[in-house]
Specification:
The chain contains twelve helices and eight strands. It is an alpha/beta fold. It binds zinc ion. Zinc ion binds next to loops.
């Protein structure tokens, strides 16, 4: 039994920039590599372009441009991905360096990003991230930018957004997902979603890529497949079974679920899931829920 896996978030572009790597191949610093995607049965991988807000750069745009180049020159053209029919997709994580600069946004539209977030954890001129005041909503510029993204059928990623921002985005007409977040009722971290948020995403036919970061699964530095199962059951119990997918955050953290340290570990997760869930549910989690979300446009 084989399962085609979709993963809606990894930070390998950031890692490549950080370590000045110009080729996408096996490297001791990289968790996501073509061979590991192949081994794990990943068929769609979303690659995030990360706006490096925490490094104190006055302007992260040159670093964003470099990650775009890396995607175009080393990932979109990668032979192993082509041979294995693994589709690389592009997203934006954090938009502090873009603000309402349409020229910069155009560059991302031209690169066919399929989703974008307004913030990482910070507050910026568009919105407020999840580590800041939860009651501050989108700014006027932020609201306009979300409308522009929706008009281009680019999904809005709320994984790092604060609570009021989440509700402001949901009030607008367009596709909304959390590319890498879990359930806050099980693990009280601002990166996770409250029950009402999960229910609202279910009503809007959105998507949640569950994230393998142990701190977001159980609040500790270690986690197991059981922890993932608990989040699956919780989201499904809220009427969100059709939301559930995978958003690993590989290369965005050094902590990992035991047995799922890199994409090749998806074999272990599938083995675990198939013992507990119906095959059709596992197929929904691994790829079909995301396909439904993508085609909702
Ligand atoms: Zn993130």
């Amino acid at each position: 039994m084989t399962f085609a896996i979709t993963d809606t978030h990894c930070d390998v572009l950031w890692k490549m920039w950080e370590h000045k790597l110009e080729t996408f191949s096996e490297h001791s610093e990289l968790t996501v590599t073509p061979e590991k995607l192949k081994k794990g049965g990943v068929k769609k991988q979303v690659f995030a372009i990360f706006d490096p807000v925490f490094l104190g750069h006055s302007d992260g745009w040159p670093i964003i441009k470099k990650q775009l180049e890396l995607f175009q020159n080393t990932i979109a053209t990668n032979q192993t991905l082509a041979d294995e029919q693994i589709t690389p997709l592009l997203s934006l994580e954090g938009a502090m360096s873009l603000g309402d600069d349409e020229k910069r946004w155009e560059r991302l539209y031209d690169s066919n990003i399929i989703m974008a977030s307004l913030t990482w954890n910070e507050k910026n001129e568009l919105a407020t991230g999840c580590k800041e005041d939860p009651t501050e909503g989108l700014t006027e510029k932020g609201r306009l930018q979300v409308k522009r993204l929706f008009a281009r059928d680019i999904a809005l990623d709320v994984s790092h957004l604060n609570e009021q921002g989440f509700w402001d985005v949901l009030a607008l007409e367009g596709r909304v997902l959390a590319s890498h977040s879990n359930a806050r009722a099980l693990c009280d971290h601002p990166r996770n979603l409250r029950n009402e948020q999960i229910q609202a995403l279910a009503e809007k036919q959105g998507f949640i890529g569950l994230v393998w970061h142990p701190l977001f699964l159980n609040g500790s530095e270690e986690a197991a497949c059981d922890d993932i199962g608990r989040h699956i059951d919780h989201v499904a119990g809220l009427g969100g079974k059709e939301l559930i997918g995978f958003g690993s955050d590989f290369d965005g953290t050094t902590l990992a679920v035991t047995g799922l340290e890199d994409p090749s570990g998806y074999c272990n997760l599938i083995e675990w899931l198939i013992k507990r869930y119906k095959e059709e549910d596992v197929r929904a989690f691994t790829s079909q829920n995301f396909e439904r979300f993508l085609n909702n446009g």
